[in-house]
């Protein structure tokens, strides 16, 4: 699929050359939720990083530059997403990034399929049916589920598992685990909006039947989770927790001071590379986090704090495609 989408972008680039007489500016459009400050910052910073890579590695005089154009939409509005995507297409974008919500994303993907424009995605792929012109660099939910199963069953030899989740949609990530685990799994919903989370922790303490937990909640609620678990004496060495949010590294280290010996495990999609490897994502993420924390919209919001490193992967791939196409055209 990557090779197929690469060919599509080649075609898009060729069209731009013929229409704009080898213009160096290549427009990338983005559709982002109005309150998703983190995604907006990720998009802009990733474009900047990709432009730096283009300057470093382009041996010709074309001096390519990616130009970001952002359109915002309200929630998961497929009609508005389609309308905004049409506006981006009129501006001759070579690709459209986002949105991340399911119905809006499906509508934009259908439009991109119709016009032959690459649709750049960074979600779990829950709602994908026909990939078409889509390029999703995010790990697939089935692959994540298998990795989770391998860890708890084959590496840690857990004989019981309780899953605490905050969103019903996220349960698809555990599909493989639910179907494959040797014993029945307990599912409990975590909801801080109605104090449901206190009942969930209290029930596990009263029943004393589970000591191994997979916790799928936003990273900014982990401190409250650990504080509550500690209040019920559930952070001792007899307990184990796997947190599934990619951004656990953003949690204040002080949040873990309440842990009294429990085993804490997290997952990451970042490869342990240093700056000398040429990838450079670690420094970029640090820059994105600093920028986000300085933005008042980010610090006020409880729903727009996700910082996704795969945004960078999308535009590193775009930069490689552009250079490959340029070398082939010489």
Give an account of the 3D structure.
This protein has helices at 2-20, 37-57, 78-90, 102-115, 141-155, 175-180, 196-207, 222-231, 281-293, 296-300, 310-329, and strands at residues 25-33, 65-73, 95-97, 119-121, 134-136, 162-165, 186-189, 212-216, 240-243, 263-266. 45% of the residues lie in helices and 15% in strands. Mean pLDDT is 78; it is low at 1-6, 13-21, 275-279 and 299-305. By secondary structure, it is an alpha/beta fold. The strands form two sheets. The chain has a five-stranded parallel sheet, sandwiched between helices. A five-stranded parallel sheet has the order 7-6-8-9-10, with helices on one face. The chain folds into two domains: 24-139 and 283-297 and 307-328, Response regulator (Rossmann fold); 141-266, Rossmann fold. Helix 1 packs across helix 11 (310-329) and helix 3 runs parallel beside helix 4. The chain starts with a helix and ends with a helix. The chain is built from eleven helices and ten strands. Helix 2 (37-57) links the parallel strand 1 (25-33) and strand 2 (65-73).
